[in-house]
């Protein structure tokens, strides 16, 4: 079968590469970080939450004030939307639910004092659809469990949390709760916040180091460098093929 090359095919391939790049640029992520304490002193919050959009911190919440504090330009924009009240209520409810989970598993945690549960809920959107949703649970500073909410698959990171995983996995209501929040509510908010993000003049700068949320910013930079190098390599290959085709004619490829 003859292998031919033409400017039309080269143009179509270039359009496909540009489309793929546009889709990747349009990817967004929303991350909720909760820190829950089984016991706290008077005047100190037992629940603190931070919300990140594309690794940029734009909302803070604590149980002591039961209020959400906007940060940066994106936070101010979200504060002016109807989603603000819903988000404030949901953060408080999720904080209370997570504290109940912590108190339930407290007997299984090998510590005599106060215990801490850190929870990261993450959702991602790309090409106008939800492409990822997950929960990560850290107990007393040790990463223990990971839940892929897209296919409801549990991963045990610390073997000491195996019993906790089995308990939560058997609770279908709890699993549905995790899925609804991450695949449903989180994705809904991300879609709305993305509209605000797109019209912003430039990305917000987080006032804190968020390198531990989704990986460091340098990792993202390396990803774009690799992607750019790959596209450049492909385009150079296409150019060389086109030059060879022009010099040798179609018969060269037969």
TrEMBL record:
This entry carries the following GO cellular component terms, namely: external side of plasma membrane; extracellular space
Q: Which GO terms describe its molecular function?
A: natural killer cell lectin-like receptor binding
Places the protein is found = Membrane
Gene Ontology BP annotations: antigen processing and presentation of endogenous peptide antigen via MHC class I via ER pathway, TAP-independent; antigen processing and presentation of endogenous peptide antigen via MHC class Ib; immune response; positive regulation of T cell mediated cytotoxicity
| Pfam hit, one | MHC_I
| Domain MHC class I-like antigen recognition-like per the UniProt entry, residue ranges | 27-195
Q: What does this protein do?
A: Binds and activates the KLRK1/NKG2D receptor, mediating natural killer cell cytotoxicity.
Key words, A-Z: Disulfide bond, Glycoprotein, Membrane, Signal, Transmembrane, Transmembrane helix
Where do transmembrane segments lie in this chain?
221-245
Q: Which family does it belong to?
A: Belongs to the MHC class I family.
Q: State the superkingdom.
A: Eukaryota
Residues in the signal sequence: 1-29
Q: State the name under which the record lists this protein.
A: Retinoic acid early transcript 1E
């Amino acid at each position: 079968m003859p292998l031919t090359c033409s400017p039309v095919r080269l143009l179509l391939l270039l359009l496909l590469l540009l489309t793929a790049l546009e889709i990747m640029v349009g990817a967004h992520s929303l991350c909720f970080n909760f820190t829950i304490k089984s016991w706290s002193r008077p005047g100190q919050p037992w629940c603190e939450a931070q919300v990140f959009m594309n690794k940029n911190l734009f909302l803070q919440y604590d149980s002591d004030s039961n209020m959400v504090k906007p940060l940066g330009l994106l936070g101010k924009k979200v504060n002016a939307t109807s989603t603000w009240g819903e988000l404030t209520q949901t953060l408080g409810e999720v904080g209370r639910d997570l504290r109940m989970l912590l108190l339930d598993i407290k007997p299984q945690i090998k510590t005599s004092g106060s215990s801490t549960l850190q929870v990261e809920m993450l959702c991602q959107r790309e090409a106008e659809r939800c492409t990822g949703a997950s929960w990560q649970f850290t107990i007393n500073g040790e990463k223990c469990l990971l839940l892929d909410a897209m296919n409801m698959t549990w991963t045990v990171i610390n073997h000491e949390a195996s019993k906790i995983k089995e308990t939560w996995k058997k609770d279908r209501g709890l699993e549905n709760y995790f899925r609804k929040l991450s695949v449903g509510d989180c994705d809904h908010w991300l879609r709305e916040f993305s509209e605000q993000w797109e019209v912003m003049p430039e990305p917000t700068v987080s006032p804190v180091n968020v390198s531990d949320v989704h990986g460091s910013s340098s990792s993202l930079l390396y990803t774009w460098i690799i992607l750019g190098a790959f596209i450049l390599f492909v385009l150079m290959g296409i150019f060389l093929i086109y030059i060879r085709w022009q010099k040798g004619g179609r018969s060269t490829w037969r």
